[in-house]
Amino acid sequence: MGHSLRPCSVAIGLGSHDLGVADTAVDLYKRGMAPLLVFTGATSPTTRDRMPRGEAVHYQERALELGVPSSAVLVEPRARNTGENIRFSRELLEEAGVDVSSVLLISKPYEERRAYATARKLWPDIEIVSASTPMTFAEYVDSIGDARLVIDMLVGALQRLMIYPAQGFMVSQPVPGDVSEAYERLCQSGFTSRLLTAGTPSA
Q1: What is the pLDDT of residues 44-57, one digit of tens each?
Q2: Is the pTM value of this prediction over 0.70?
Q3: DSSP H stretches of helix in the chain
């Protein structure tokens, strides 16, 4: 998204297979970008083996290992998709009495736009600042150690960005023609494990 980072009311780290999201959240917390971290996420087929206790719990454990006090971390362990990440985090913060005017939304690098578009739809009255670990595609693949998984996830994220606005799950975002063409080529090459098909629950 290319957003300029600035201090926000809270930082929300969206659960995934990528523990780097927690690392980035901790780094931004230590830089004074948010006084409170929320980690949100249950498990999914791509995280069950990597994070058996749930994405948010593993993120919390990582943050505590890196020196964040437990009083600065809230855990939302139920969300199974991006919409639930946003809704359940919002509910958790309201229950905790946290006054939120802006959110530093931390995700995987290729999920920034999807996360932003979802938050704008479900939490329109606050400012959203998108953030992720700054790295190249090659660096990201190396950090995950599974190129196939990364490309499958990227293709699935783009499909959702294209179809979810019409279903009311997020605000519309522009998709350049060359990106659409690349998406079609990757689908034809078999990178389809994360694609939604008819009857597949939204995610």
Answers
A1: 877 777 888 989 99
A2: yes
A3: 20-30, 55-65, 82-95, 112-122, 137-144, 147-167, 177-188
